[in-house]
């Protein structure tokens, strides 16, 4: 226990320090050590107050994830919290870094809380499909009021030390947590402050008890983006217990609700997705201790929507960026768009004007590619044409310094071919950002046949530094995400020409859990992407729409018609074009059920995922799921396409693919791996 938790005496102050790196997780050893040290301090007549703090870079950042799914080891968290809350001596939680999940619940049972200025506080359990299970939903509303509690618990987002101080969650901001905590403990003793037990203090609930709309309005705000998810609504209900019920009854119902979620399918899928993100960082042939290259300055080639968004990721992380465009007007336009993006963030209260100025100061614009010569990493974000890309890489090869990483943001092109025009193919890699690049979490990292291991390691580390979820893939058309997406798009378009309406297809996928269907998604992106007027032949729906100037939301019409607020409604124009195309084909329309729509859109994706695994273009099935959850809106409560396939049964998927193949042809030819797994009674999850 002494190795994990240490007890020291500074005359009448006992200091209990947790040292359980890297994040001081509340493991069984940590829980036992805290309880043992606390009991010793409480029993010691010389001790008048106790400070609970942590060594290392953070306070307790949550539960020990290695214990998830295993039989609980004593002491339980509730036992520990009760011992601290009922201490006859004042306990001060001295916080730095992150106090998250069980860490914040532990701090909430302490009688006082102080924190360093950079601290963050949160109960993010909702992101795992569960609730805080140790009184967090009952104590936090009593500390900060139900409105902020709903935001933190149902939304799962942390708050800063400044917000914590303003809301009453902490008592003071201190310079150093241990010293500050000790100084505050001495102040408590000198002033004879009474011990504040949150469980007994309903003062912050009084307004919501008198006017229930204070709570219901907060719930409506926080849960409007939670479609399909169970945990945010359960979290809101649990905060309601704090308002409506005595503490012990609310605590009991919180535990019951948490257990229901814990054993449910949604939480299992969300926990799978959580661990899948962490597995994706492990690359079998690139050891964790592989040296990485320093990246102190980044170059971006192209100041358009994608290039500007990519640049924002790096300056947000404090990394200077040189952004290069061909013409001054394009450069100025790109920099203005970046500034306007930041200004909108300021208007929402998420950044200060000073922070924006600091980030913009890290951006250097240029029309001279030679200004990239000192960059450690250069990412091109130019037109998606092979000849253009190869020409750019020839120039970068001549300009950039030795050891610089040369990256392409291509979404589908052969990066081996791009790398072949350089004298340093080992330094070339794909960094496929998703639009809008400053917001979307996913980054596909594409290794070529010659990419050096330290380049891969550097790219994966850098992705984490700029707040991205990185997945390593191999070179193939469309890589992981777009390769599978193409199968869904093909079937969606074919079904429309068989008799399904566009809105039927979109509705089926929306009801499955996607934020929007394929046709709404294309309207959002712009139908004219990749469309060339001079080559248009009026032979497809998208060509005819583009010929009519219906490019999607930006023109007020695409597959759908849009009102002034960009709300979609079915279009008679589109319906007429579809009927004409069907008539030209000589085929009869038929009714297509939502069930068939889902099977024809999703099963070919799963099948293509199996082919990607067969070819070694993805390391593991869970990597594919990480791509789809973080880059394509796959509902997290369904885990990802490969996880979903395992849940419904690979035999069912295979049977339906064979049925479709017999009636509709080779689009549905089953992958060899899918057939092999079914024959062996195995799942994608069994592949490791």
Characterization of the model:
With 688 residues, this protein is of the alpha/beta class. The chain folds into three domains: 5-262, 2-enoyl-CoA Hydratase, Chain A, domain 1 (Alpha-Beta Complex), CATH 3.90.226; 298-478, Rossmann fold; 499-585, N-(1-d-carboxylethyl)-l-norvaline Dehydrogenase, domain 2, CATH 1.10.1040.50. 48% of the residues lie in helices and 12% in strands. The protein has 28 helices and 19 strands. The strands form four sheets. Strands 12-11-10-13-14-15-16-17 form an eight-stranded mixed beta sheet, with helices on both faces. A six-stranded mixed beta sheet has the order 1-2-3-4-6-9, with helices on both faces. Helix 4 (136-144) crosses helix 5 (146-154), helix 10 runs antiparallel to helix 11 and helix 19 (481-496) packs antiparallel against helix 24 (594-614). The two termini are 34 Å apart. 47% of the residues are buried. The mean pLDDT is 95.
């Amino acid at each position: 226990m002494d190795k994990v938790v240490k007890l020291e005496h500074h005359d009448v102050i006992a200091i209990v320090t947790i040292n359980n790196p890297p994040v001081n997780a509340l493991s069984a050893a940590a829980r036992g050590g805290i309880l043992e040290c606390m009991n010793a301090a409480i029993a010691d007549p010389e001790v008048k107050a106790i400070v609970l703090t942590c060594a290392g870079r953070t306070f307790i950042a949550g539960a020990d994830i290695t214990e998830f799914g295993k039989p609980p080891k004593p002491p339980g968290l509730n036992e520990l919290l009760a011992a601290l809350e009922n201490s006859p001596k004042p306990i001060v939680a001295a916080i730095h870094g992150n106090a998250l999940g069980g860490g914040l619940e532990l701090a909430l049972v302490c009688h006082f809380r102080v924190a360093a200025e950079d601290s963050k506080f949160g109960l993010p359990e909702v992101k795992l499909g569960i609730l805080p299970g140790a009184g967090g939903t009952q104590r936090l509303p009593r500390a900060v009021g139900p409105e902020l509690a709903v935001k933190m618990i149902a939304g799962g987002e942390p708050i800063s030390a400044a917000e914590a101080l303003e809301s009453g969650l902490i008592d003071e901001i201190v310079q150093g947590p241990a010293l500050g905590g000790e100084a505050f403990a001495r102040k408590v003793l000198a002033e004879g402050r009474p011990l504040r037990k949150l469980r007994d203090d309903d003062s912050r609930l009084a307004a919501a008890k008198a006017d229930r709309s204070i709570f219901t309005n907060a719930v409506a705000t926080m849960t409007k983006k939670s479609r399909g998810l169970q945990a945010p609504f359960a979290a809101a209900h649990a905060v309601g217990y704090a308002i409506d019920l005595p503490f012990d009854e609310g605590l009991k119902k919180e535990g019951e609700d948490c257990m229901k979620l814990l054993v449910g399918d949604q939480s299992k899928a969300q926990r799978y997705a959580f661990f899948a993100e962490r597995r994706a960082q492990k690359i079998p042939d690139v050891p964790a201790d592989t040296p990485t290259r320093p990246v102190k300055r980044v170059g971006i080639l192209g100041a358009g929507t994608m290039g500007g968004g990519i640049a924002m990721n790096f300056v947000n992380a404090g990394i200077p960026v040189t952004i290069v465009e061909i013409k001054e007007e394009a450069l100025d336009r790109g920099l203005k768009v970046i500034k306007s993006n930041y200004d909108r963030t300021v208007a929402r209260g998420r950044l200060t004007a000073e922070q924006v100025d600091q980030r913009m100061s890290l951006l250097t614009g240029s029309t001279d590619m030679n200004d990239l010569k000192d960059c450690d990493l250069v990412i091109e974000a130019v037109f998606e044409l092979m000849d253009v890309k190869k020409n750019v890489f020839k120039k970068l090869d001549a300009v950039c310094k030795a050891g610089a990483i040369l990256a392409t943001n291509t979404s589908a092109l052969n990066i081996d071919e791009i790398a072949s025009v350089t004298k340093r193919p080992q330094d070339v890699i794909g960094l496929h950002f998703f639009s809008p690049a400053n917001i979307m979490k996913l980054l596909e990292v594409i290794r070529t046949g010659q990419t050096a291991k330290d380049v891969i390691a550097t790219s994966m580390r850098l992705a984490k530094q700029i707040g991205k979820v990185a997945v390593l893939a191999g070179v193939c058309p469309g890589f992981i995400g777009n390769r599978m997406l193409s199968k869904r798009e093909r079937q969606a378009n074919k079904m429309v020409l068989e008799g399904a309406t566009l809105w039927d297809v979109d509705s089926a996928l929306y009801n499955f859990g996607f934020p929007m269907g394929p046709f709404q998604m294309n309207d959002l992106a712009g139908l004219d992407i990749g469309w060339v007027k001079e080559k248009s032949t009026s032979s497809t729906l998208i060509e005819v729409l583009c010929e009519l100037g219906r490019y999607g939301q930006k023109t007020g019409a695409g597959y759908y018609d849009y009102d002034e607020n960009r709300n979609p409604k079915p279009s008679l124009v589109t319906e007429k074009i579809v009927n004409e195309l069907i008539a030209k084909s000589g085929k009869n329309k038929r009714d297509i059920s939502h069930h068939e729509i889902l099977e024809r859109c999703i099963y070919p994706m799963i099948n293509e995922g199996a082919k990607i695994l067969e070819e070694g273009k993805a390391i593991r099935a869970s990597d594919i799921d990480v791509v789809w959850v973080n880059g394509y809106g796959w509902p997290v409560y369904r885990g990802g396409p490969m996880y979903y396939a395992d849940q419904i049964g690979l035999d069912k998927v295979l049977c339906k693919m064979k049925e479709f193949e017999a009636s509709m042809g080779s689009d549905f030819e089953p992958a060899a791996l899918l057939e092999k797994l079914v024959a062996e009674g195995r799942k994608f999850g069994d592949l490791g």
